[in-house]
Design a protein that fits this description.
The structure is a homodimer. Chain A contains five helices and eleven strands, in the order αβββαβαββββαβαββ. By secondary structure, chain A is α/β, with parallel strands linked by helices.
Chain lengths: 194, 194
């Protein structure tokens, strides 16, 4: 079991509606030592890949992406979310539907910071239905770059995003995969990984 | 001249309305090697302070705060911005007026992650009028904690925030202070620092 999995079992809190609260170490308070261990695990899993840029999305992905960038010796670009924005020729844009907040955001990246030479590692904190991830992959494709891999902290294995992305042939490395949660008992069941 | 100052003169772009664009290295694309150098400079300037927590605000502060946390061996808490939120007893809340977007946000931090034992270093990317910073200081005060210092990447020295905060007695360390900008000539004048 890796350190993130151990931490989820210790400090993750299950709430009604399949919500897993990890705000004490991942997405409100950030345990940077944990991020460091996660970054090293991603570096191991993506060893040999030619990665020159990490792409993430504001806000929760930024911290772990910056710590990961120290392992991959590359820069980070974070996509920005807007409720609505006038289409501007200088931006890659994708539509991302948020299931948590029941709204659609436009996710944008400046064309200056992503192009056809980029070999991109996408990093994010959560993968459930995969809406945000689809938006980020779309942006790399618009740029003509290549998605070398996808590093996720926590995948909700009972939602379809992860399977869909793996079916498309991407190397998706989720450090923890939650197969089941029960808010009444507080039980979290993690998928066994090698 | 420190590396951030050199980088601003090299890659910062002045736009009409006293806008300094640093999105190629600071707040859209993130140069993590630069963040590392900035973190070391803050560690030097705040040497001897007992800091056990870094407080920042989403989104642009998070990356540099996480890299700085590796120098200070502490965790990061990032304040979240909401257009409006029902007052919830579990949150510290402050009002922050954004001059860029002409709107007021509520800035919140969960009470779980900040308390009277905390000795806080506040980190943010920009200081101009100091609206965001006032909100963060207010939150530390609500928690009964102590602001040990404030680390800013870029201060706009021709706007009143920095002077106001220094007058209150806080140790405010801005790695670069822009005293003047001219979008017509692209000139950026930095204040001399020791």
């Amino acid at each position: 079991m890796n350190v993130l999995e151990e931490r989820i079992l210790k400090d993750g809190v299950v709430k009604e509606g399949n919500v897993l609260k990890v705000d004490s170490f991942l997405n409100h308070q950030c345990d940077v030592e944990l991020f460091d261990a996660m970054a090293k695990e991603w570096a191991k899993r993506f060893a040999g890949k030619q990665i020159n840029k990490i792409l993430t999305i504001e806000a929760s992905g930024i911290g772990m992406a910056c710590i990961a960038a120290k392992q991959f010796h590359c820069s980070v670009v974070f996509a920005k979310k807007y409720k609505s924005i006038n289409i501007d020729g200088d931006m890659y844009i994708s539509q991302v539907e948020s299931f948590t907040h029941k709204e659609t955001n436009q996710v944008i990246v400046s064309k200056k910071f992503l192009n056809e030479d980029d070999r991109v590692l996408i990093i994010d904190d959560f993968l459930a239905n995969g809406a945000a991830l689809q938006g980020l992959i779309s942006i790399v494709n618009q740029a003509g770059g290549r998605v070398e891999g996808i590093g996720i902290a926590i995948e909700k294995g009972f939602q379809p995003g992860g399977k869909f992305i793996r079916n498309l042939g991407y190397q998706l490395e989720s450090l923890a995969i939650v197969d089941d949660m029960d808010w009444k008992t507080g039980t979290i069941t993690l998928r066994k990984q090698d």
